[in-house]
Amino acid sequence: QQVGAPHRRRSPPPLRPPLPSHPFTPSRPSQEHVMNEKRIMAETDHPFCIRLIAAYKDRTHLYMVLEICQGGELFSLLQKERKLDEPASAFYGASVMLAFEYLHNRNIIYRDLKPENLLLDGKGYLKVVDFGFAKLIKDRTWTLCGTPEYLAPETIRNKGHGKGVDWWALGILIYEMMTGFPPFCGDTAMSTYKQILEGQLDFPKSMSRAAQDIIRRLLHPSYSKRLGCLRNGTVDVRLHRFFGQVDLKELLKCKLQVPHVPKIQDSMDTSNFMKYDDDPDPEYKDDGSGWDKDF
Q1: Collapsing DSSP states into helix, strand and coil, what is residue 32?
Q2: Could you write out the three-class secondary structure of 96-135?
Q3: What span, in angstroms and rounded, lies between the C-alpha atoms of 99 and 118?
Q4: Which of 119, 96, 117 is nearest to 234 (CA)?
Q5: Which of 20, 67, 203, 252 could form an SS bridge with 24, CB 3.0 to 4.6 Å?
């Protein structure tokens, strides 16, 4: 991709498998996946993580009620602006950094960072959403998951991964916010993986040294040498000069001026979100195991 190219949404192939024509029962991994997401969200309380207000179920559906974020996706803002300036990138990057610090302190890795999973609330503050890949870990895990452009080398190599994959993804995000596209982006997932493993980083001349430095250090190919994974952990990320332009204490209190104030007409306004057609839900068949009894 070239600088200034239109921001494109990462999406699955247009051809999707047909919906089941017979009663559908979620697989055991899918059942565990849903329960894990709900459990993690119920235990998460941070200003930059989406808040789970309630969860309930009926005979055929599970429901999670989340706090409203009417400002739309960060992806949409990037699509509109093409790229963000350094102060805005530092502001949103610091918000993600603080959210990751909170999660990692609780031994939770997020594993699905991308602009589509970052929403703006009504005041313009950022919220990390979609905890479907989040996981409580003791050391490492081996599941391949995430968006190709944001995968860390150790995930691609299937050598096991931990909290370092989130710091890698933060480096990708900062680069994407400041240039309009991710640093590693091929025509296919495999070509993207090849670029990630080769690790060739190119920076526009307009990018500051501080921005280049934090990106390089977050995108270190070696997990043990990556910023955020050293002896001081998150403190090294917090104290990097790139985030020196953001008052982190005031940011946590949501008392800073935001880079972008969403235009919202009323409490029911959803105009900051793209419109999609919902697929009809397949008929649900209870397998009688009681897998969702604690939902």
Answers
A1: helix
A2: HHHHHHHHHHCCEECCCCCHHHEEECCCCCEEECCCCCCE
A3: 11
A4: 96
A5: 20
CB 159 within 8 A of CB 151: no
**C-beta separation of 113 from 173 below 8 A:** yes
> What backbone torsions phi and psi does residue 97 show, to the nearest 5 degrees?
-55, -45
Give the pairing of strands 72-73 and 62-66.
Answer: unpaired
Burial of 151 (0-12, 13-18, 19+ CB in 10 A): buried
Give pLDDT tens digits for 124-145: 999 999 999 999 998 889 988 9
pTM: 0.92
C-alpha–C-alpha distance, residues 259 and 33, integer Å: 35
Residue 149 vs residues 170, 175, 181, 192, 199: alpha-carbon distances, Å? 12, 12, 10, 6, 12
247 is a catalytic site residue: no
Report which of 242, 208, 7, 161 is spatially closest to residue 169, judged by C-alpha positions.
161
Backbone phi and psi for residue 38, each to the nearest 5 degrees, phi listed first = -65, -40
* Unique residue bearing structure tokens 């803002």: 77
Closest of 261, 262, 164, 148 to residue 222, by C-alpha: 164
From the list 112, 266, 286, 292, the catalytic residue is 112
User: How far apart (Å, rounded) are the C-alpha atoms in residues 200 and 184?
Assistant: 8
3-state helix, strand, coil in the chain (%, to 5): 35, 10, 55
Render the burial of 220-247: b for 16+ CB within 10 Å, e for the rest.
beebeebbbbeeebbebbbebebbeebe
Residue 12 confidence class, pLDDT cut points 50, 70, 90 = very low
Tokens found for residue 221: 């190919």
At 189, the pLDDT band (50, 70, 90 cuts) reads very high
CA torsion 32→70→117→10, rounded to 10°?
120
